[in-house]
Amino acid sequence: MSVYAYASLRRTTPCPECRSPADWVGVQALVGDSLRWDVEVACPACRFAVADCGGELSDEVREQLLAEHGAAVLRLRAPAHRVTVLRVLRAALGLELAAVKDVLEQVWGGAYVGTPPEVELLARRLRAAGVDAVASVGP
Q: Are the C-beta atoms of residues 10 and 24 closer than 8 Å to each other?
C-alpha cells in the first residue's frame, strides 16, 4: 500500500471561548522537504476559529496518528552503501553517531517505523542520495 504525504486527526473538543463542542483538526504533512504540523479549531456555536500552523507535534498526538493511520515502514528495495544511508539518516534525524547506528540497524531489518509523512520524508531523502527506498503501510 502506498504512503500518503499527510496524516490527519479529527476530534471534538470544548471551544476555548464558549465551551460548546468545537471541531478540532490536526494535520501532519510533508511540504516540500520538511514536515509541518497544523491545527485548526472551529466552533459552530460562537463562530470562534483559530489555526496554529507549523507547530510541534506532541508525542501523544503522534501516537494517535500512528494508531489511526498505522505505522509506515522504511524499506530499502536494493542493496545500498551503508555510509550513504548512515549519512542521510544522521542528517535527517539530527542524531549522534551512536544513536543513528541503532536506527540504521532498524532500517536494515525492516523495523524502522514512523508516521507515514515522517517515513516518506526519509525515503525521499534516501532516494535523493541514490538509495532505492520506499515508505509503506501494511503488509
A: yes
